[in-house]
Every structure is written in structure tokens, then in C-alpha cells.
Amino acid sequence: VKAMFGSIYYSKLKSLNLDYNTINTIDMSGMEDQHIIDSSYMFADCTALENLSISTWDHWWMNDANHMFYNCTSLTTAPELPASTLAESCYQQMFYNCSALTSITCLATDMSATSCTTNWVSWCSSTGTFTKAKGVTWATGNSGIPSKWKVVEK
Length: 154
Description:
Elements: E1 2-4, E2 25-27, E3 51-53, E4 103-106, E5 129-132, E6 150-153
């Protein structure tokens, strides 16, 4: 089941009342991100979600994306996270229990904000690939790069 969105103006996807247990592909590439004011819990509990297209979004990840993909147990590849500076708690538990997740690209260079990645990869796949900005140091573990993941610089 696929859900596609064009020019709609919702601050939270949850308000659309979709059947999150059957949608496996969401295409939001036609949606303008400046209308999204809070992406926390946006796709939480979308257990069938495997693919997500948000290629045209530029700003959604900056302030509050905590729990955004919480319990998306079928998601294998995270959308690229190009924000350079992370805000307080912005990615907290973002990918918590995304047990099939094996690929994350996060290009942050400033992660000094309090709790910005706290438990963001808890219960993700034990192996995968993490792509990070060149020369940036990350902690490993549930609040950084998953311990056994391959690290690639971009």
C-alpha cells in the first residue's frame, strides 16, 4: 500500500488518520517542508513502512524530529539527514526499535545540544552502514553510531 502527498499543509502526519500497519511506501517528495512545524512521532508505529521519499524537504529535521520513526520495524534505510547543527533533543529516540534499519546517513557536524541523539538507534539492526560527515567524531552505541556498524565518510 502506498501513500502519496503533494501540496498539503499538516504539521503532523498522524493527524491524517492513515492505516499505519499497511502502508509500506510513503512518497512526500511533492510536499513542501516549510509547512511542517513538528515532525516528532510523524511516522511512529508505521510498522509496515519500508520506503520513504522526502527528497525535496530541506528543513524538517532541524528542530524536533524526536521519535519520528519510532517502532518502524520494517524500515531498512533512513532518509538522509543533512542538518549540520542539531537542536536539543531533536533526534532523541528517532529510530528506536527500527529493527530492520541497516543504513543511516547523518551529516551533522555539531551535536553539542543536550540529548540531541539520546537513544536514537536503540534496538536497531546489529549490523549496517552509517555515513557521516568527513572528519566528524561520533560516539558509538545507542546514542551515537551503532557499535557494530560500518562507518563511511561523505
